[in-house]
Amino acid sequence: MLNIPLGRTRFCDGVSRRSFLRAGTFAFGATALTQADLLRAEAAQGGLPRTGHKAVINIFLGGGPPHQDMWDLKPDAPAEVRGEFRPISTKVAGIQIGETFPRIAAMADKFAFIRSIVGASGGHDAFQATTGWRQESLAPMGGRPSLGSVAARLQGNVDASVPPFVGLAETTQHGPWSDPGRSGFLGAAFGAFKPRGPDLANMVLNSSNRDQLPSRKELLTSFDQLRSGLERDGALKTADLHTARAMDVLLSSKLVDALDVSKESQKTRDRYGDGKPFQFQFDGAPTVNEQLLMARRLVEAGVRVVTLSYGRWDSHGKNFDLVRDHGPKLDQCLTALVEDLSVRGMLDDVTVIAWGEFGRTPKINGGAGRDHWPQVSCAILAGGGMKTGQVIGATNRLGEFATSRPTTFGEVFATLYHNLGLNPMTNMVNDPTGRPQHLADGVPMPELV
């Protein structure tokens, strides 16, 4: 919850501290006036809201998707490695992918497939897939910030009433799979906004909650009184501006509207699907196809980075049944998203990536499953003005290790930052000691940019 709590005492205008504001799930991760802090940071960077912007939609396939059953099939491997799926041809000559992704195959010219991601830590979490770094990097000072937090810090808001970083991940029993991306050493003010179900209704003034909120004028007047005597007149005017813009977020319906997919036509919603029934979820995320539609709407509203966790891919048992369930669902919503972005003229500005924390073992275990395999994994990307319709990297005949173009998480993130309009070689963020830190451990991938 975002609270703007000011205790129990009353000001001379009769507005009690307790009556200030309690607006539903607005979890930037900070306490009072978090959005105002963000706006001050934006002003410090000299940034102003814009009508057009670059964005990233980061789809985390929590649990570790099986690379050799998706984008890197091994039809010539022994039966205990190649599994049950056959490769199918795609729109791009020479590229084949798994049979559970026919729609992606038909749009392969819009996608880039990386088959050789290396350097996974082996942890069952989203950390590397949201930051590009290992968890131990700068851990004593809070750890590395995620892509969304960095974008919030360096680029600020596109629209004053919309947060720059939104995490849509449903709460999972295994908590690290629903991590939207940490703010690390940047601090909680730059964390993700995390919408949570019916509490969203409390974010805007409506007939049921209007009486619970004092007027905007009363709020701002009370803030002025709270700060009275603590700041000079010039500084106070600046604070008023930031506070007013922060209140825009709470009093605007723009963000809530973006999260409401019922405003889309039924035809559009049918193209994305709903991902139901949710199967193989266990302690992970459901296959909520509509979150990809929601992500597109959020970007249109002004969000710079959207993260979500899609499915539970930890296939120690029944790997092929899981891929038969998750694969076609992801195939449907991912192609609907890319098609939507293309039709709306947004594809060159919005980068889409789907990947997990590591790959799966080449050899199938006794439970028809595949176990953890940090040695190599995969990713699929689209948009962002990238060179698509290609495969990057390769693994050996058994899918054990990269044989060409090993690609690090740092290189992928350098590419994502580049696509956001940030230069990973020159743009930096200061850690708590004041020392500038690079955004990524790598350079943008020349194959893509």
TrEMBL record:
PROSITE patterns according to UniProt: TAT
Domain of life: Bacteria
Matches recorded under Pfam families: DUF1501 (PF07394)
Name assigned to this protein: DUF1501 domain-containing protein
Organism the protein comes from: Urbifossiella limnaea
